[in-house]
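Fill-in record for Dihydropteroate synthase.
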Amino acid sequence: MVEVNSKEEEVVIALGSNVGNRIRNFEHALQRMRKSGIQITRHACLYETEPAYVIDQPHFLNSAVRANTKLSPQKLLQTLKEIERDMGRTAGIRYGPRPIDLDILFYGDQTVDTDTLRIPHERIWERPFVLGPLTDVLGHDTENDDVARFWHDSSGFSGGIFEAWEKSKSGPGGIMRRVLPVAGELRDWSGKTWVMGVLNVTPDSFSDGGKFVDVKSAVDRSRSMLADGVDIIDIGAQSTRPMAEKLSPEQELSRLIPVLDAVVDLPEIEGKLISVDTFYSEVASEVAKHGANIVNDVSDGRLDPDMHKVVAGLEIPYVAMHMRGDPSTMQNSENLSYVDVCADVARELCECVGEAELSGLPAWRMIVDPGIGFSKNTEQNLDIVNGLKYIRGEIGKKRLAVSRVPLLLGVSRKRFLGEICSQPNAAQRDAATVACVAAGVFGGANIVRVHNVRDNRDAVRVCEAYPIRQTVYMLIFHFLELDIKYFDLGLPHPDATDDNKVTIESAEATLKYNVAIKCATITPDEARVKEFGLKSMWKSPQLVCSSKFQISKKLALMIIRSTDHS
């Protein structure tokens, strides 16, 4: 007899794997969990982490899920252990390699302490590779979430699980890389801004309709974009401009497949990605068979109720874009009515992503797009470009993992730029696009979708170079001007011999903290710290300096060397 509770309990389950196809192991484990009475409601991002405790083994992939279940704690444990065994998990070396590891972190607001099970999990607070994903499945807003508040209180820190994670990062497994699974790889999207080039194989697109409708011209266009440094080619066969003719899935596929097949066969496409712009699940399913790596849906599943479930089965990334109505109604007055466009877009994206996650599409495969030009007027579009950090923050209040996924910005040649610049010809809006793309990159956009790849690729490179230099010198000045004991963080310095001596490791901890704070003007993602090339510095031998100024000087020199890429 299955042991169940009379009511559902909310649980958090951690996932880990470092043997075999790690992401496939996760997907298989989640499928088994769903079939076993565990309804997954939220997914964390994916983190690639260095092994802890036993270090001579492959890197781990870590994540977590939040779920509802009627299974009792013991039955839940039994179910997870059965999944582990069926997937090849053996006793082996403690903390050693394993194809799958499933741990119950929390079970509602219950505390369990038996010979076989302890909840909350006893080692949560010492493991950054557990705490990082755990923060993802929570939101900052716990006002109406008693269970999440209990989980935070269990940490023993006034700042809850978020503070516990920060304090754990110097321990085993503290070096983590947030990744997006795509094209058989785990790509770290935080280190650069990806350029997505538009390839419209339509006769009626607003900017370049009719130019690339045959296979040869589409292939030539693709080669040109690849030569200009594109990262993703986004192929669209159906115009989504206002009042455009709506094609059937069959009509769309008849345009798409010949071009997609030809682009996939290009030698130059190696290492690049192909996205297909569609709101049909039938089209998404078919193009995945022909080599598409990403599905880009302007409707976030609103125009096809099967889209989320179908893409979940494809196991490829999904661009969820905000739009109200459909292309024929999106600019109606009711669809342009917002109280706060950034907050409203964030809330509506969260709702759609929540539906996608319930359909089995995990947050770690998501890319979000605020939908510039779709059910927004000029002023609202500008508010969004200027408010990307605010949108992330609003998303993070409810679904923190979603606030940490890649953000795509599509402003290229759009009507609002023409209105601002009095330029009715869409093809003449490239200069305006470059300016808007630059603003988006500084606002934290991870992917920019553009027609003119060369000019926008250059703009992105300049934007990426500028904040790194700016932040480096801000940090140098910060350290050289410090006149406080122990860098004003209250960090313990056990190796200090007097008030004026402190280890370089303590200074590094402070540096990492300040890099994260200073990077807030670039992105809220503390993982971007590694962009500064400081990893080698963090592994440097321990040094004891005679004064804070000497520490600052050493750090300044290290920073300059590690970022002097020119």
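KEY FINDING: The chain is about 40% helix and 15% strand.
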